[in-house]
């Protein structure tokens, strides 16, 4: 039988500087969702990579006195290394400087030209290098030195140069109609409303080529122009399928693009319009998450207030960092980062709640039953409650995960863990052993092992490394699909 397909992506990150915790966050959230879908028996394609053209990258290379391409090799490699460090299960990693991508973008450009979506003109206006974005007058503020400041608080640059334009304005109505029919296109809901309002206010044609620098994909047949970096970058989502893996017909349209809210407009306005113009299918959902802040300021390379994810992983462990980030803030909202918060959460939830439960139960199993899981004997109402809890909680987890509410899903799972700890305290297996109440001790230990096993099934996408170790301790296979959760109620044949 053909498996259901699921295509999920992270943004491709700029290589103007090394990765920081913000990038790790998007990648870890995307990876968790990809793992969740895999365990739900989808065939998943998970794409990530680096965005290597544009003025920002060219400037960064110049600052380091490096050849631009060599510079991109160096920085892109650090993003690639991070995918390994974070133990991501991405299927591929695309760089926009690769031939396969350049070929695809040139092809797209020609198609748009053939369809009369592109015309040559001159752009005069303000540009944010930080955002690689043309900024309209109503988004500009003026600082005390009379500089024009963009939405990301950088000093804008005035540009006046020949440029190709994309006929964005004519797509306003079709896009609004599309939004109306696809209310799940942008999530969370507040972002959907925001994007819709932006489009309702009108769209201007978009400048899609630059002539004042050369680091980019050349416009076919007019090589004084390079293609605007966002037009170039967005098509990575198709290049990686098409030109690399021959999978476009299988995985396109994407099921979900996970992005930060800073780049929602590009994904929710320009991207679907380019696709409409090409008569391609449009992705099902763009999910815009919030920002990690430091003392209230967005963590960003440009502001220099960044945390190195490599340091955190080396110090605390990859599962621990993933768990903290997904539990600490509801996906979609902003949150402040501090190492103290991370340490507290790891200690109280992972070590005290979950770690202790496993340690206590497994050592009792060893001590009282020589490590062999006993048979379930007669059960009371309270036993039944815990015995059936994981299956019931799984339904809640599914609901939370369908909305990408990772923190809620974890909160649901933690209800089981707390209940199990309370169950140990109430049933006191050490007293049952002393009293030689073997029948009751069997039931209590059986139920506790069963609970740990099933909780571990649910935790696989959130704690990939630890859950593997725990399955090993339980002498079970390394990965267990969610639909196998209810299989093992009676005897532990795998033991
Ligand atoms: O925008 N908190 O690349 P980029 C949470 N190349 N997430 C953060 C973050 C923070 N403080 N800072 C960054 C680009 N991110 C383009 C994308 S896609 C076709 C092209 C994450 O290197 C978040 O996902 O600036 C954000 O959208 C992304 O990194 C921006 O990465």
Can you characterise this structure?
With 495 residues, the chain is α/β, with parallel strands linked by helices. It has helices spanning 21-39, 55-63, 68-85, 99-114, 172-181, 189-200, 229-234, 236-245, 248-251, 264-278, 309-316, 318-328, 339-369, 381-402, 406-427, 429-434, 438-459, 464-473; strands at 4-14, 42-51, 92-95, 118-128, 133-135, 141-142, 148-149, 157-166, 186-187, 206-207, 209-210, 218-219, 222-227, 256-260, 285-289, 292-294, 297-298, 335-336. It is elongated and about 90 Å long. The two termini are 31 Å apart. The protein has a domain at 339-486: Isoleucyl-tRNA Synthetase, Domain 1. The longest helix is centred in the C-terminal third of the chain and has 31 residues, at 339-369. A six-stranded parallel beta sheet has the order 3-2-1-14-15-9, with helices on both faces. The structure holds ligand ME8.
Which terms would index this structure?
495 residues; alpha/beta; Isoleucyl-tRNA Synthetase, Domain 1; 6-stranded parallel sheet; 4-stranded antiparallel sheet; 17% strand; elongated; binds ligand ME8
The CATH superfamily of the domain at 339-486 bears the name: Isoleucyl-tRNA Synthetase, Domain 1
| Annotation field: number of helices | 18
Read across the widest sheet, the strand sequence of neighbours is: 3-2-1-14-15-9
Spans of at least 5 consecutive residues with low confidence: none
Average of the residue pLDDT scores? 95
CATH topology of the domain at 339-486: Isoleucyl-tRNA Synthetase, Domain 1
Please give the radius of gyration in angstroms: 26 Å
Please identify the structural class as seen in this structure. alpha/beta
Hetero groups: ligand ME8
- Helix content, binned percent: 40-55%
Which architecture of the domain at 339-486 per CATH? Orthogonal Bundle
Beta-strand proportion? 15-25%
What profile does the largest beta sheet have? 6 strands, parallel
| Overall body shape | elongated
The total count of strands amounts to 18
CATH class of the domain at 339-486: Mainly Alpha
Distance between the termini: 31 Å
